[in-house]
Amino acid sequence: MPFRLIYRSHNRIPADQLKSELGAIFSVARSQNKKADITGALLIDGDWFVQTLEGEESAVRALYDHIEKDKRHERLSVIDAQDVEDRVFSRWSTARVSEDGQPDIPLLMNRDKGGASPAAGRPTTPEQDAVLDRMREAAKVG
Ligand SMILES: Cc1cc2nc3c(=O)[nH]c(=O)nc-3n(C[C@H](O)[C@H](O)[C@H](O)COP(=O)(O)O)c2cc1C
């Protein structure tokens, strides 16, 4: 049974370095997480990061302990940590979920533009929507 951890943290990256630092974070996350069989998503919303990590519990907890030490964010708080029936981001080592950037969940991007094309079917699964809503809510609490 997979384990899912969702945490929120406060961004410490100066605005002029944000683009390059985020590029570096996604690049490392995608290759490292793939190796550890961890999937998930990272939302960037203004000053807040909200990240979902899914995988084997010990691997997820080890990765969280590692990420927690990163000086590019602070004030980490775990929002949820529990066993789950299934992964919801099984296709993404680290999906990018951003309100103003370029989300790389293609169908989600379509939805943000006013709905996926009929041929594309459902933009996201209800299970993904539930986790994504939770992540967006967490970023708003500020
Ligand atoms: C918000 C945020 C999310 C991150 N997510 C991941 C992640 O999912 N996987 C990962 O390997 N590193 C992630 N990192 C980067 C790690 O903290 C760390 O820099 C990276 O794993 C390289 O570690 P190393 O220099 O010890 O090899 C994240 C960093 C931040 C600030």
The percentage helix is: 25-40%
According to CATH, what is the topology? Alpha-Beta Plaits
Uncertain residue ranges: 106-120
Helix count from the secondary structure assignment = 4
What small molecules does the structure contain?
flavin mononucleotide
The helix/strand order is: EHEEHEEHH
CATH architecture label? 2-Layer Sandwich
Structural class of the secondary elements? Answer: alpha+beta
> From the alpha-carbon coordinates, what is the Rg to the nearest angstrom?
15 Å
Distance between the termini: 32 Å
Annotation, overall tally of beta strands: 5
Overall average residue pLDDT? 85
Domains counted in the coordinates: how many? 1
Please explain how this structure is put together:
The chain is α+β, with helices and mostly antiparallel strands. It has four helices and five strands. The chain has a five-stranded mixed β-sheet with strand order 4-1-3-2-5, sandwiched between helices. Strand 2 and strand 3 (48-55) form a beta hairpin. The longest helix has 18 residues, at 18-35. The chain is globular and about 40 Å long. The termini are far apart. Residues 106-120 have low confidence and may be disordered. The protein binds flavin mononucleotide (FMN). Flavin mononucleotide binds next to helix 1, strand 3 and helix 2.
